[in-house]
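Handoff note, outgoing to incoming analyst
You'll be picking up this chain. Sequence as last confirmed:
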Amino acid sequence: MGESRFYLIDATAFCYRAFYALPRLTTSFGQPTNAIYGFVAMLKKVIQEGQPEYMAVCFDVSRDTFRNQMFSDYKAQRPAMPDELSSQMPFIKKIVVALGITLYEKEGFEADDIIAALAKKAKEARIPTVIVSSDKDMLQLVDSYVRVLSPYKDSGILYDEQKVKERFGVEPKAIPEIIALMGDPTDNIPGVPGVGEKTAVDLLKKYGSLDGLLANLETLPNERLRKTILEHIETVRLNRKLACLDRTLDLDFELEKFKIIVPDYRQLYAIFSHLELKRFL
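Most recent structure output, in case you need it:
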C-alpha cells in the first residue's frame, strides 16, 4: 500500500471519549469545553503526524438508524448524549469547517457506515486510506488499501491486514463473525452465553467461517456449547447483520471535495478566543 492520502475520522466516538476522559473544563461564562479541547488536540495530532491531503470528519446525526429497525434494543442501554457534551458539538463542527476539513454526516446512518462507504469508494479509486477510530468494528474494513489507526496508545496502533490477524487470529472480514458469537456490550448486542473472544476465534478457525460453523454444528464435540449455539442461532445471524458495516450507501465521492484547504484563521481565532482555549490561539 502506498502513502495514505485520505483520512476518515470517527468523530462522534472521539467526542465522547474526550468528554469522559478529560476533567471538566468550562469557560468563565460556564460553557463546557473538555470535549472540544480533547477532540481538537487529537485532530491536530493526526494531521501533523499523518500529513493527509484529503480528510472527512464523520459524525452520527441521530440514534435512529436502520439497525434499530432490525433490533430495537440496539444501543438501547446508552443514555442520551449529556447536555454538557451536546452543547459542545456545534463548536466542534464549526472548528472542523474552519480548519478547512470536510464534515460528513447522513441522517439515519452511523458515522461507521459513512466511513465504510467512503473507504470503499476510495479503494475503487485506488486511493490509500486511513480510518482513525478505536472501534473494533472498523477493523473489518482493513484490506490492501485501507488501514485503521487507533490513536490513543503512544503514537497509536496502525492496523493493516497482518496486524489484525496478529491481534484477533482471523482475517479482517471475520471481525463481524467474532462479534456475532461473543456479542458487543458497547452496542448492546447480546452474544452466545459462555462464548468470549477466545472461544469465538477458536470456532472460526476450526470451521473456517461462521457459515461453516452453523452448517456443521452437529460435529462440534462440546455438547453444551453445541446446544447453546443452536438455541441462539437466530441471535447469531442477526448479530452478524448488526456488526457488518454498510458499504453500499449512495454517497457522492469526488476526491477533490475532501481536499484539506487553507484554514480560516480569523474564524478559528474568534472561536478559540470565545471558548478561552488559549493553547490553540
